[in-house]
Amino acid sequence: MNFRYIFYITLVISLSAQTQVVVKEVMFIDAPYVGEVTTTTSKYAADGLFRQEASIEVDRFLIRLAMGGNKSLGSILNGKSESRIVYNAKDEEYAMETFDTIRVNDGIPTLKATIGRMNMGGGSGGGRGNDNSDEEEEKAEFDRTISKLLERMPGFDARKVTTKIKGKNGIILVEEWFTTDTTLLQFVSEVEADLVASYGGQKQNNPRSFSERMLKQAEQEFESVPGRMVKYTMEMTDDDNGFKMVWELKSIREVPFNMADFKIPSDYEKVDELD
After folding, report:
1. Percent of the chain predicted with pLDDT > 90
2. Using CA of residue 41, residue 211, residue 196, residue 270, what is the dihedral sign?
3. What is the mean pLDDT of residues 186-190?
4. Which of 58, 80, 63, 71 is nearest to 113 (CA)?
5. Does any domain span residue 275?
6. What is the pTM of this model?
7. What's the half-sphere exposure (Cβ side, CA atoms, 13 Å) at 3?
8. Per the domain annotation, does 208 fall within a domain?
9. Alpha-carbon distances, residue 176 vs 224, 227, 246 (angstroms)
10. Could you tell me the residue range of the domain that residue 109 belongs to?
């Protein structure tokens, strides 16, 4: 029996069988040409059950039109019935597949529930990553500050880490807050990971720290902060444009178990796949 399994069992035991964990996250992006985009994500986790729903609001009309309008999409994993459901709350439609169907597809779900072409998981973006030459990296200046004091955030005491990277073409400022109070966060992550693993898939994780990833890529030494990230801001400025991204864990709560949070409303229409 490996450590990960033992840790997960301990988490399940520590949380009552009559409870579930509910998470709310908000991401805000303000980018050139795209404008402001706000994504609100809710997650629900209980023993053998996981649901995630993301709602997106796009400020600019043409961008919103290109993405198919504001949306609210979600998915439900049910380990008891071994089923995966994807749904569109705006259109009140859903589609379903079994874990067996996913297993024969090499652990890759056949039904998709994506919002436009954007990676709403908080990736650093692909359009600008290769603009820096080796010469520019050598000339870049790095500054990193770790707060000695903890800051009180909703439900957490967190330590702030500020990383500033100044290059030839602009400045990147990353602020991150980490907490060591991770019991509920770990439970939600483990529930999803175990359900995905049960159909042969692998859960996609966001970077533990964006600043650490960038510093590693630049082969810079740095001091790491323990715990999990509960908030970050990233601002990039150059001669022509600016970019800002803010992600925050707004709340995480243990609440009485409610099976309705893991079911599709009865008036939703079943379809073969979502548009």
Report:
1. 65
2. positive
3. 94
4. 71
5. no
6. 0.82
7. 0
8. yes
9. 12, 11, 10
10. 3-122+131-270
